UniProtKB/TrEMBL annotation:
<protein>
    <recommendedName>
        <fullName>Zinc-type alcohol dehydrogenase-like protein</fullName>
    </recommendedName>
</protein>
<keyword id="KW-0560">Oxidoreductase</keyword>
<comment type="similarity">
    <text>Belongs to the zinc-containing alcohol dehydrogenase family. Quinone oxidoreductase subfamily.</text>
</comment>
<dbReference type="InterPro" id="IPR051603">
    <property type="entry name" value="Zinc-ADH_QOR/CCCR"/>
</dbReference>
<dbReference type="InterPro" id="IPR020843">
    <property type="entry name" value="ER"/>
</dbReference>
<keyword id="KW-0963">Cytoplasm</keyword>
<dbReference type="GO" id="GO:0008270">
    <property type="term" value="F:zinc ion binding"/>
</dbReference>
<dbReference type="GO" id="GO:0005737">
    <property type="term" value="C:cytoplasm"/>
</dbReference>
<dbReference type="InterPro" id="IPR036291">
    <property type="entry name" value="NAD(P)-bd_dom_sf"/>
</dbReference>
<feature type="domain" description="Enoyl reductase (ER)">
    <location>
        <begin position="17"/>
        <end position="332"/>
    </location>
</feature>
<keyword id="KW-0694">RNA-binding</keyword>
<dbReference type="InterPro" id="IPR014182">
    <property type="entry name" value="ADH_Zn_typ-1"/>
</dbReference>
<comment type="subunit">
    <text>Homotetramer.</text>
</comment>
<keyword id="KW-0521">NADP</keyword>
<dbReference type="InterPro" id="IPR011032">
    <property type="entry name" value="GroES-like_sf"/>
</dbReference>
<dbReference type="InterPro" id="IPR013149">
    <property type="entry name" value="ADH-like_C"/>
</dbReference>
<keyword id="KW-0479">Metal-binding</keyword>
Length: 337
């Protein structure tokens, strides 16, 4: 089958950073696995990081996490889906990825594709939506309908994860949502998604929050955590909570001690990677999000569709994500010639 992968770590502008490949198709699904015909994928920072830093050990590495497609076969333990069902999901880091014609994936981390979205639009959503949902509900423990009178600060509101944090928080909680953005177009994107306020993360964040009369109890940092750490610590209310999805440089958690602030990590791959007893929660939350999309409460975040997947187009997508200037998500649809 056709796939795009890599055999050696290279910078994104290297012609062999990603390669067009012809590899064996996956075996017949076993257990809870399904065989999915991949119709569209999107690119996340985790794709670019692994391409840059993780040398393949046993043949080509196939990346790709976000995907939307059609079920072609199911394993004997499957009860949630059958052949012909349209699905979307975010995969897991320790299995072959979605940058291929066919992929095996555990049905317990798969949701029904929103009926109102194309495959390309649906592929923009799973990883960022799961991250946003788990970060808010499982890590910060803001329950559905909760958070009245409290505020959430979203660092990096216009990125893939930030775009979904804003929407999930607005639709499922009573929190006042403050997003950070540094350009007029990204600030407007955050407002269009529902942010009550937008502040500039290149300026003094605590001063801007004070001017708004807001003292966030919660912070969801989606990027540049180390760069903004001192401002996050200064901004958060006593006895608040912070959730991080990255820190590209060390941070000093001891700074949180005077305010008794709790610190949490969110990695949406944890449940499938460790096979936790509650991994089916990702199936349930994706189905809930599909319902919200189909009822017009949440929208997809695809802002760029590069067309059929080839190594050249996927390199272009990686470069756009690595630039740090993407608004929303970049998507590729189907395998190219």
């Amino acid at each position: 089958m056709k796939a795009v992968g890599f055999t050696k770590c290279h910078p994104v502008d290297h012609p062999e950073a990603l390669l067009d490949l012809d590899i064996p198709a996956p075996a017949a699904p076993e257990g809870h696995d399904m065989l999915v015909e991949v119709r569209a994928v999107s690119v996340n920072p985790v794709d670019t990081k692994r391409r840059r830093t993780e040398e393949p050990k046993d043949g080509p590495r196939i990346l790709g996490f976000d995907a939307a497609g059609v079920v072609r076969a199911v394993g004997p333990a499957c009860t949630l889906f059958g052949p012909g069902d349209e699905v979307f999901y975010a995969g897991v880091v320790n299995r072959p990825g979605s940058n291929a014609e066919l992929q095996l994936v555990d049905e317990r981390i798969v949701g029904r594709k929103p009926a109102s979205l194309s495959f390309a639009e649906a592929a923009s959503m799973p990883l960022t939506t799961i991250t946003a949902w788990e970060g808010l509900h499982d890590r910060l423990r803001v329950h559905e309908g909760g958070g009245a009178g409290e505020a959430l600060l979203v660092i990096g509101g216009a990125g893939g994860v930030g775009s979904m944090v804003i929407q999930v928080a607005r639709q499922r909680t009573a929190l006042t949502v403050v997003a950070t953005a540094s350009r007029p177009e990204t600030a407007q994107w955050c407002r269009d998604l529902g942010a009550h306020h937008v502040v500039d993360h290149r300026e003094d964040i605590p001063a801007q929050l004070k001017a708004l009369g807001v003292k966030p109890r919660y912070v969801f940092s989606t990027n540049t955590t180390a760069r903004n750490w001192d401002q996050i610590v200064a901004s958060i209310a006593p006895q608040g909570a912070i959730v991080l999805i990255e820190s590209q440089a060390p941070i000093d958690a001891r700074q949180l001690m005077p305010k008794s602030v709790s610190l949490h990590w969110e990695l949406m791959f944890t449940r499938p990677m460790f096979g936790t007893p509650d991994m089916i929660e990702q199936h349930h939350l994706l189905n809930a999000v599909a319902d919200m999309v189909d009822h017009g409460r949440i929208r997809h975040t695809m802002t760029l569709n590069l067309g059929p997947m080839t190594a050249a187009r996927l390199r272009e997508a990686h470069a756009k994500v690595e630039s740090g200037t993407m608004i929303g998500k970049v998507v590729l649809e189907g395998m190219g010639a």
